[in-house]
Amino acid sequence: MAATTGGTQQAHPERPGASDGVCSEFTVFTKIKPGHAQALRDLLAELSATHDDEGFRVAMHQIGTLHDARHVIFDDDTRFMFASVFDGSWDTYIDDFGKTVVGQNFDRIFSHSEGWPGVSDPGVKDWFVEHQAPAEVFDSSYPDLTVQQIWKDQRVNEAFQDVLDTPEFREALENPANAKLVGTPAFQKLLEQAAA
User: Fold this and answer.
1) Which of 68, 90, 151, 182 could in theory staple to 15 by disulfide, Cβ–Cβ 3.0 to 4.6 A?
2) pTM for this structure?
3) pLDDT at position 173
4) Please, is 57 exposed, middle or buried when counting C-beta atoms within 10 Å of its C-beta (0-12, 13-18, 19+)?
5) Is the dihedral of CA 139, 96, 62, 8 positive or negative?
């Protein structure tokens, strides 16, 4: 699969966060409301236990731009960090969360943070900007691949591996009529990559 090349420009350059190719980072630090750390910890454990449920996975596929996310309670249970890596514009990323169960989870999680306005509040983006700290250094192992491209690459690889395992494929490789195709550098590279 051909990857896209070059980084993307954010729709709003004033939004904080570093980018590497098509990937951008989002890191928010908040103060936990006094006495709320354990409730937040319990909620994160609950959400982690249901992480693989159908609703969450459907929401992640609906959003389709989130590479990863982390939730951390630190500083003796007084502060909270949410960090993620996403594709596309900052504004679209925030908007997309509000449209799914992920936004509901954000409301539940950040309700334990001081000053949280709610994911549907018109000022929520300003709140995130106030609490966001851009990374000094941000590097991605695959800066030119979006989540959608990675998912497609995975589907194509699984389908190709299924083909490789068939007796018909072995037979086609050994058929003299296909020798010219099998002998091409591109086909040999394909077989080498499949075997790696």
Assistant:
1) 90
2) 0.80
3) 84
4) exposed
5) negative
